[in-house]
Amino acid sequence: MLQRQENGSVVISGTGLFTPKESISNEELVVAFNAYVDNYNDSHKEEISRGELSALTHSSEEFILKASGINSRYVIDKSGVLDPDRLVPYIPERSNDELSIQCEIAVAAAKQAMENANKRPEDIDGVIVACSNMQRAYPAVAIEVQQALGIDGFAFDMNVACSSATFGIQTASDSVIAGSARSIIVINPEICSAHLAWQDRDCHFIFGDVATAMIVEKAETATSDNQWEIVSTRLKTAFSNNIRNNFGFLNRCDENGAGARDKLFMQNGRKVFKEVVPLVSQMVINHLADESIEVSDIKRMWLHQANLSMNVLISKKILGRDATELETPIILNDYANTSSAGSIVAFHKYNQDMQKGDTGLICSFGAGYSAGIIIVRKR
To answer: Which of 149, 163, 313, 347 lies at a CB distance of 3.0 to 4.6 Å from 364, suitable for a disulfide?
Structure first.
């Protein structure tokens, strides 16, 4: 799906970022995980000796870094994740009279984006909360955020997994072009630590927590010093079960916990790598060609921060050479994979140095499969 901005320019006029106070290094994570492995193997040594169960394998800092390029990750709760007897963040349930934790971090990112865009609540007509997992089914988290920010208008949640942010940007842009809103705030509160299987060696290191936000509005109403015209967008989905989370009210695990592993993040990493890299790289190449934009004119690509090897190979296929650190900034080292927020974290942190007229693209890819491209130009 290709969307060109032909009915007046639409811009991203402000971004915001909430980063949790606590972080977990690979060293800390490995110590906790290996303690869990030792406890498990010791508790099940008879079943393991009889061949009824397989012994778990230790993790290592070297393994994590080679597999992902991640050194640390920010989390809402550190103590629960690092408890070998728990390996799950401790996020207490709040009363219905309190702000939900997802709303709280969304509001923090949103307020920064509004400040950067010189926007007051009365300037904004819509709120889209777009992320991989919502804290509840209803009422929409977006409506709670809307009330907390004092915004009049409409709000809704949307989920396209790791592409939620880019899909949210196009949805907001379409609404502004259609005249149904003057400006919309798109927020990505990703509490990924809560849906990660920290006991699984293949993925226990992948995710971190964060929240990002963007103001999308018509150029004629924008007053910030850092505006990015949305030149063109393209979205694509193709069903695959290779990345999934089957949690839901129709398929909960039984009273003994059977099926619990299937209700958290799961992926067939090798298949994902093999199938997503060519899909995304060719999609970008085709999109640029359709817009008569030379690849050499792209000054920066803010790619989804899933895996260092994926980003390196995708950028190489697009550029026809290895990308420099400035051409494809990486935030995986400190933030890990933050699902849909990853490319927006990179955009938020690495766009201030670009000059008027410079062109770049925000690109997401993930479960679905889903992929989204937002071509932007500095005003």
So the answer is: 163
Residue pair 146/117 in contact (Cβ under 8 Å)? The answer is no
Before 139, cis peptide (omega within 30)? Answer: yes
Count of structural domains, the chain: 1
pLDDT tens for each residue of 131-160: 999 999 899 999 999 999 999 999 999 999
Confidence of residue 7 (pLDDT cuts 50, 70, 90): very low
Beta strand pairing call for 228-237 and 2-4 = antiparallel
Pairing of strands 126-130, 154-158: parallel
Contact indicator for 151, 138 with CB cutoff of 8 Å: no
Q: What does the block give as tokens for 146? A: 């809307």
Residue 299 DSSP code? E
CA angle (30 as vertex; 29, 33 as ends), nearest 5: 85
* Mean pLDDT, all residues of the chain: 92
Domain assignment of residue 204, yes or no = no
For helices 308-319 and 269-290, the axis angle rounded to 10 degrees is 30
Q: What is the DSSP string of 146-175?
A: HHHHT--SEEEEE--GGGHHHHHHHHHHHH
369 and 276 Cβ atoms separated by less than 8 Å? yes
Assign 72 to helix, strand or coil.
strand
Q: What is the pLDDT of residues 78-89, one digit of tens each?
A: 999 999 999 999
* Domain-located, residue 289: yes
Segment holding 4, helix H or strand E? strand 2-4
Check whether 4 has a pLDDT greater than 70.
Answer: no
Kindly report the CATH number assigned to the domain that includes residue 299.
3.40.47.10
**pLDDT tens for each residue of 118-128:** 999 999 999 99
Instruction: Provide the annotated active-site residues.
Output: 162
Range of the structural domain that residue 241 is part of:
228-378
Assess if residue 101 is contained within a domain. no
The CA-atom distances, in angstroms, between 132 and each of 27, 168, 187 are: 27, 12, 12
CA–CA distance, 378 with 359 (Å, rounded to integer): 7
